[in-house]
Write a structure and sequence with these properties.
Chain lengths: 394, 394
């Protein structure tokens, strides 16, 4: 069964993470992705370690299911090939710094003229407009500027970056949302349009209750560790071999927790009798929970808490996630047979569709793997393709 | 200009965050959202503080642009009204625990029979299948189980939760992606389908280089603070009044940094001569950067670094984000006039479309605000609507 985007052709100029995450999402949903890479070196992330038999594990994880065409967009023949591809495409995605595509004469205004049905998505750090538009952007810089670091961390003195590149990834998924809604709209209007997604905008969009807390109180929220601002105990607790998370959403669960950890004194302590008072007294309550739960292992407590129906969960390491029965049952870990690297593990698609399921069809391409196939489909002869190769156009 | 989803009708049974974030995204893109709430109390998040004139700032921020219909789905007349709505709808979204809708006789199998074009999206903690499917889920629990906490934090001893509810929010955006791709697919097939999105799956999908690093090395990644695993210095540095982020992606930028912070000794130190050696020696390099930059304020360094073209940025608090010129220029902060709460600030949509722009059309509804309008449109008379009210069906 082909995916929901079967028949959609995407010309993909993206590099590293934000753009490639977007086109990976579209690939999983069935679109054909023609990834255009710089001849010789390709996507910068092909150089990012660790490498398996010379192929970047990082590159392979976010470029599965795409085709690779090397193309020098600055060469006249390279431009010509690109424009032929665009003429017949549904979507172009790029994540260059704003202005680069215009300099190449390949911005939306130019491409729209040769293909009015084209949807053109530009993903960038700050967006195509505004005073910072032309600045370079990195995930760390954007996480800091966007406010997320100011509310993440053990305490107010340690603003903390999220461990994965969340600013890039959100730009990728919101780009996919923009492209999909423009594709849907095109079925009525017959016309394409431009989608402009900024990493910084995405960070603002996901601040969640932090904006509400600030506008309600006028006080800037700060990192408060792993606890909930208004429910307690709803936090990480130390055990003899690590940490677990517990989530007591009401008084009954709190009393049950006191029973399980054999601390009846806490259950009758006036300071902890209501959710409100437990929130207020978390600074003295948390050390007592840590002390009580430090006596046994995470596995011990998780079993006890599950039996007592107190919501709890482990803080899994990556290897534990990758062997978790639920993760495996949901097909969230795939093994792809890569022609050079061998078996490669990549995460599956989290979009589970009943009739046209998302599917990872192929491993990531080696650089220029689909040059001959794609150029032949555009009508170029074997001799012409050899010529492009000799001139380093591809 | 109407949004790209103009004409799409969504029946929204969602509560709290993951589901409401999904339908907010669809609302911003122009869909009509009929939010069905429990008579009397409504969405649980209406009770979450802080409140402005009695209306929850939290609820208002993620329910803008929706209509509210109160409906008791357990009452026979409530079910009848719901089924009337579904008959004419494009999408149903719910984020109940798996099994709840089946118990109500309102699962996809049942609704599909009365409307084969319906797209039914279920967003849950663990998904509709697999051994943990029926477990309750909270953002904290899922961030821990999904591995993100194991790679976030100042160091290996402090696994850290992301400050916003990223597991819920990712489930919301991937649900939107599933719905949009199913809507597009329906334009060919005329048929709807089911979308099943799990918070845990979403966490696995965004682990990014952590999976690649683990599968490449066999070693579980741990939190490494704010620094980059393989580029240095690419980290937060302490100043006299806070922290800033710096991102030196190559040797030239590193040498420029040494000049700006007036530490020529670091530039000639053998330990820091290449990116590789700087990564290896970050434990002794970072304290020296902190020491040098602690002598001046964040604003001082940001100006100097910008002049020297060294990528850098502030760690903004929420109030700083909300007054940032770029954020304002991108319309990422909107003020909505709420009938009860007055002016309410909410983030804008990060999906910027050129022809059919996303747009926030209205503030969040008060509970049951659209009861009369929606029920009248289904053909119920004023008397019947009064009857529903008297019987607490609405």
């Amino acid at each position: 069964m082909p995916g929901p985007l079967h028949g959609i052709k995407v010309i993909d100029l993206t590099r590293v993470l934000a753009g490639p995450f977007c086109t990976m999402t579209l690939a999983d949903l069935g679109a054909e992705i023609i990834k255009i890479e710089k001849p010789g070196t390709g996507d910068d992330s092909r150089a990012f370690g660790p490498h398996l038999h010379g192929e970047s594990a990082y590159f392979m994880s976010i470029n599965r299911g795409k085709k690779s065409l090397t193309l020098d967009l600055k060469a006249e023949k390279g431009r010509e090939i690109f424009l032929k591809l665009v003429k017949d495409a549904d979507v172009v995605v790029e994540n260059f710094k704003p202005g680069v595509m215009k300099k190449l004469g390949l911005d939306y205004a130019a491409l729209q003229k040769i293909n009015p049905k084209l949807i053109y998505c530009a993903s960038s750090g700050f967006g195509q407009t505004g005073p910072y538009s032309s600045r370079p952007a990195y995930d760390l810089i954007i996480q800091g500027m966007g406010g997320l670091m100011s509310i993440t961390g053990p305490d107010a003195s340690q603003p903390t970056k999220v461990g994965s590149s969340i600013a890039d990834i959100f730009a990728g998924v919101f780009s996919a949302i923009g492209i999909l809604s423009a594709l849907y709209n095109r079925t009525h209007t017959g016309k394409g349009q431009m989608v402009d997604v900024a990493m910084l905008d995405c960070m603002v969009a996901i601040l969640e209750n932090a904006i509400a807390r600030f506008t309600g109180s006028g006080i800037d929220p700060v990192p408060i560790g792993n606890r909930h601002p208004s429910i307690a105990p709803f936090t990480s607790v130390r055990t003899s071999d690590g940490y677990i998370n517990i989530a007591c959403g009401n008084d009954a669960l709190w009393l049950k927790l006191c029973e399980i950890i054999e601390r009846p004194d806490l259950a009758t302590d006036k300071r902890y009798e209501s959710n409100r008072s437990r929130c207020d007294h978390m600074p003295d309550l948390l050390p007592q929970l840590n002390e009580a739960m430090h006596k046994q292992s995470s596995a011990y407590w998780l079993k006890k808490l599950e039996e007592g129906h107190v919501p709890a969960g482990p803080i899994n390491s990556i290897s534990q996630v990758l062997s978790d029965p639920q993760v495996l049952a949901r097909n969230m870990l795939l093994e792809l047979a890569h022609p050079v690297a061998g078996l490669v593990k990549v995460p599956g698609s989290p979009v589970k569709l009943s009739d046209t399921p998302a599917e990872v069809k192929a491993p990531a391409p080696v650089l220029g793997q689909h040059n001959d196939e794609i150029l032949a489909s555009l009508g170029y002869s074997v001799q012409q393709i050899e010529g492009f190769r000799a001139e380093a156009v591809i």
